[in-house]
């Protein structure tokens, strides 16, 4: 698709205005304007003529061969700006030098004529002054030199709305007098010069997935404070580096996730949903899939497409090697091999941009999340008496009738969800009011947030980290050498997204109420925290990547 220059609408209007004037003269004043209007309705617009001529010339230079690939997503009406199709993904902009300044002169005349003959309410919003940049020029740095190319502050849409405001005779008199300018231009040698060519992507490509974070010394995004980097890398950089490398030099990206965890918090389970917005990339997915298919054509195992899939090992056809082109499991494996086991990704796939942003925001604020933590009760640890007090308080907060507690500590109930026996107590949830925590007050708005704790479980520390404990819990064993084990316990809870779990435990100097410490009647601190699950069914799960 080809877009015409901004000022071509002025030239088109000038032609029809001149035709209307000559029609009146030829008919000795008896000509009807409707005659010209009817002719204009069936005539080929000037912009279409320009597009056809330009396409014919550009096709000879640019389109050496037709390459047509199937879209990654089904679209009933593929469009130029439709992000769910890759049929048209390149935007080429030609900036032409106008040495005579004719185009700029026409635009200036149009705006002047509009302001002189029309009421401000008709044109004020269309001719608004351009906004000044928010950042001022640094001291000592020279002002940028204006480009010699013609750049107008009036858009195509504004021009189309401005042109009907001027009558034909006013337009010919004050904007473009074709008879006068035709004679002047015929005596000049006009040479069009190409100033620059810009190539860019029409819309970004969205890659979605989930990441599992196993390192407690890794921020989600680059940690830079006062211009100084605090840690060498981040989750974002570990994931993006192989992707940017695959898409070629000059690739830009934007990392967005469904919430975030602190530096010292692991993210386990299926992981946290995220997306990479890839733009200005050199290599298309089709070219990468083809290259990957050729790499797999040496007889090595191919991408697993299911138990019933039959793939020809000698074929390099993308559709045969990768039955689902949107599935980027092959790229996920590249990422996982490059992160030194600090981060793993899964469910990597291409998604439509229309649903990606909405899905992530919905998961960040409207979903529930599960956490597991090692807690320290410094005043002798938990006891049956304290458990009874906690249960009684929670029954009141939950609106449940009071009854005599039969719970005891250490607990007797056995949990099997962690693939080994763990003694635990399950209690009902409650609602809390959280003022913005002190630790994030420098970057978060001061506000009071209501959050729902759906349920909590208290587990015996020694049974949880026993010899047969899964790897998720083995990391907690380090605390047994630093604190008395009888004062440690495991806390697991399911809560509303946006809950500050650390403050829920210790209370943050009373800024979170009611908190676990106040309900137990003794000080409790959180030593280590894991995100166990993010309750969000986006993006769709792919076959187990073998993490």
Strand residues, percent: 15-25%
Structural category is: alpha+beta
What is the radius of gyration? 33 Å
Helical percentage: 25-40%
Oligomeric status of the shown chains? Answer: single chain
Enzyme class: isomerase
GO biological process, one term: tRNA pseudouridine synthesis
Protein name: tRNA pseudouridine(55) synthase
Pfam family, one: Pus10_C
Describe the structure.
The protein is an alpha+beta fold and 547 residues long. It folds into 3 domains: 8-130 and 148-201, no CATH class; 212-365, Alpha-Beta Plaits (2-Layer Sandwich), CATH 3.30.70; 367-534, Alpha-Beta Plaits (2-Layer Sandwich). The chain is built from 18 helices and 15 strands. The protein has helices at residues 8-26, 33-42, 46-62, 102-117, 120-123, 156-162, 168-174, 178-186, 235-247, 285-295, 318-321, 329-336, 353-366, 384-398, 461-464, 471-474, 501-506, 516-520; strands at residues 90-97, 193-201, 205-213, 224-225, 228-229, 252-257, 266-279, 343-351, 368-377, 414-415, 422-435, 448-460, 488-496, 512-513, 524-534. The strands form 3 sheets. Strands 3, 6, 7, 8, 9, 10, 11, 12, 13, 14 and 15 form an 11-stranded mixed beta sheet that branches. Strand 6 (252-257) and strand 7 (266-279) form a beta hairpin. Helix 1 (8-26) packs across helix 7 and helix 9 packs across helix 12 (329-336). The radius of gyration is 33 Å and the shape is elongated. This is tRNA pseudouridine(55) synthase. One of its GO terms (molecular function) is tRNA pseudouridine(55) synthase activity. Its EC number is 5.4.99.25. It comes from Schistocephalus solidus. Belongs to the pseudouridine synthase Pus10 family.
């Amino acid at each position: 698709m080809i877009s015409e220059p901004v000022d071509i609408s002025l030239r088109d209007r000038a032609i029809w205005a001149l035709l209307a004037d000559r029609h009146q003269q030829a008919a000795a004043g008896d000509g009807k304007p409707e005659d010209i209007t009817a002719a204009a309705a069936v005539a080929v617009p000037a912009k279409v003529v320009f597009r056809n001529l330009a396409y014919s010339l550009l096709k000879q230079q640019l389109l050496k061969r037709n390459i047509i690939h199937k879209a990654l997503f089904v679209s009933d009406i593929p469009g130029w700006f439709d992000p769910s199709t890759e049929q048209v993904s390149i935007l080429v902009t030609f900036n032409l030098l106008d040495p005579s300044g004719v185009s700029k002169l026409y635009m200036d005349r149009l705006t002047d004529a509009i302001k002189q003959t029309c009421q401000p309410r008709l044109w004020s919003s269309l001719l608004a002054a351009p906004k000044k940049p928010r950042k001022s020029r640094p001291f000592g740095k020279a002002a940028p030199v204006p480009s010699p190319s013609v750049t107008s502050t009036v858009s195509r849409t504004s021009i189309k709305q401005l042109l009907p405001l001027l009558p034909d005779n006013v337009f010919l008199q004050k904007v473009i007098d074709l008879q006068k300018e035709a004679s002047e231009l015929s005596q000049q040698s006009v040479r069009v010069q190409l100033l620059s060519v810009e190539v860019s992507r029409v819309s970004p490509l969205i890659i979605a997935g989930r990441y599992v974070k196993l390192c407690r010394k890794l921020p989600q995004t680059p940690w830079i404070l006062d211009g100084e980097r605090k840690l060498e890398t981040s989750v974002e950089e570990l994931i993006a580096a192989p992707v940017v490398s695959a898409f070629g030099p000059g690739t830009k990206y934007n990392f967005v996730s469904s919430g975030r965890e602190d530096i010292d918090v692991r993210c386990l389970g299926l992981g946290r949903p995220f997306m990479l917005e890839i733009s200005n990339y050199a290599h298309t997915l089709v070219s990468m899939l083809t290259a990957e298919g050729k790499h797999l054509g040496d007889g090595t195992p191919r991408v697993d497409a299911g138990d019933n899939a039959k793939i020809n090992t000698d074929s390099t056809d993308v559709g045969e090697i990768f039955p689902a082109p949107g599935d980027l499991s092959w790229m996920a494996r590249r990422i996982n091999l490059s992160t030194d086991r600090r981060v793993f990704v899964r469910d990597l796939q291409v998604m439509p941009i229309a649903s990606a942003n909405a899905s992530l925001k919905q998961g960040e604020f409207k979903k529930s999340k599960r956490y597991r933590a090692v807690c320290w009760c410094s005043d002798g640890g938990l006891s049956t008496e304290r458990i009874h007090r906690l249960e009684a308080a929670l029954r009141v907060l939950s609106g449940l009738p009071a009854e005599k507690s039969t719970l005891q500590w250490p607990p007797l109930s056995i949990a099997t969800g962690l693939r080994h026996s763990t003694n635990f107590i399950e209690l009902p949830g409650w609602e809390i009011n959280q003022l913005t925590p002190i630790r994030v007050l420098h970057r978060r708005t001061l506000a009071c947030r209501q959050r729902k704790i759906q349920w909590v479980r208290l587990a015996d520390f020694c049974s949880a980290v026993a010899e047969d404990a899964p790897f998720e819990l083995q990391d907690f064993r380090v605390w047994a050498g630093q604190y008395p084990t009888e004062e440690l316990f495991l806390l697991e809870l399911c809560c509303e997204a946006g809950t500050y779990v650390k403050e829920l435990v210790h209370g943050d100097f009373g800024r979170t109420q009611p908190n676990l410490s106040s309900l137990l009647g003794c000080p409790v601190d959180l030593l280590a925290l894991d995100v166990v699950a993010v309750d969000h069914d986006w993006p769709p799960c792919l076959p187990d990547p073998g993490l």
